[in-house]
Amino acid sequence: MSASSLVLNPHQNAILQLEQVAGLLANEYADSVRFWVAIEKLKTPDRVIEGGLKIKMDDGSTKEFLAYRSQHNNARGPYKGGIRFHLGVTKDEVMALSTWMTWKCAVTGIPYGGSKGGVVVDPRSLTPSELQKLSRAYARLIADKIGPWVDVPAPDVNTTGQIMAWMVDEYQTFLQEKAGAQGLTENPLAAFTGKPLAFGGSEGREEATGLGGVFVLEKVVEELALSPKAQVRIAIQGFGNVGYWFAHHAHQRGYLVVAISDSKGAVYNSKGIDPGAALAHKQSGGRLSELGQALSNEELLELEVEVLVPSALENVITEKNAGQIKAKVIIEMANGPVTPAADPILKANGVQLIPDVLANAGGVTTSYFEWVQNLQGATWTKAEVLGKLQPLMESAFAEMWKLQTTTGQDGRMATYMRAVKRVVDTMLLRGVV
Fold first, then answer.
1. Which of 62, 138, 143, 207 is 20 to 30 A distant from 154 in Cα terms?
2. In the chain, where are the structural domains located?
3. Which residues of the chain have pLDDT under 70?
4. Catalytic choice (116, 133, 195, 219)
5. CB contact set of 203 (below 8 Å; sequence gap of 6+)
6. Catalytic site residue 421?
């Protein structure tokens, strides 16, 4: 099966990446039989939960929504991963995302495995009461398969701190029903992260993913001697939470953000775009395309810039457009925006790629900090949280850069080699393979 034929199947993309990494790691293991058994096990999630969520709509009708939770591997710790509400959610997608979460947690060394969940729904079509019912129904679906030491969900595409609060409350109700007179023996707050600050959330969580990417940006700019910062042009596809905070912190540090986009289109301004002003314009009902030269999202990807930041959805850079990418660096802030078939084209053209499992690991790392605070009954300041995040991101980048330099592999393979080896080594130590 060719790489190009796998473009539309994210789980097959994830398996293909794993097979490529395994080929590079195999010679490091004396017991090749156990190594390949571990690799085969990592191709399939440990468990996939799926079901229909039936809720009563405000008009009295009943609707059913398909839902999933994929738990990939827990050798290094509890499963960890977000929940997305999106019409594009599929079983293959959540399986892929849970696999990438396993690598992402291993990249920064935090003690988690990977999971991911989703509901096939456009949340904008629901009223607030319907959204709460759906959120609680999802929490019920997975309640007996999650927990602080089992699986710790978090927000993802189209889910929020409020949705996590509803889910925590439903999960706590489930635990109380199960415990009866015995009472609770665990803190239900530690079962979910990305919660509102008033409900056990962590300072710094909202901007952590975007800021973590900027910590990586700073290091790659330093390594490639791209200077001065004011001449480092950045194009960002996707202006949601991650894209906005990446743009905000890059702008604050003196980089030139020349293009941004959302689902309605893109805008280019060679003199730079103020992310804060752009967000205010969008929130007031304006379109980003009104802030400069209007472009399509596809045209944004092919701009002549130093740094391209895809921070929307999967598979936007494929073998069909990889040859037209003019950026010197791609920082993957979305999950899986570059397909395996595009990777060798980018490498051949000298494009430095910082893979998603490293670039956007700031979110799950700060979720880990929230989990630790909940387990300890502690509260850290924003400065403490972000102060702990920066060295972890910089250390993960340094490990990737060193391995890339010594092996000649691209950024993705170097990062994956480090992450997969950590997981396989733990599986071998446990004796589960």
1. 62
2. 45-184, 207-360
3. 1-8
4. 116
5. 197, 380, 381, 382, 384, 385
6. no
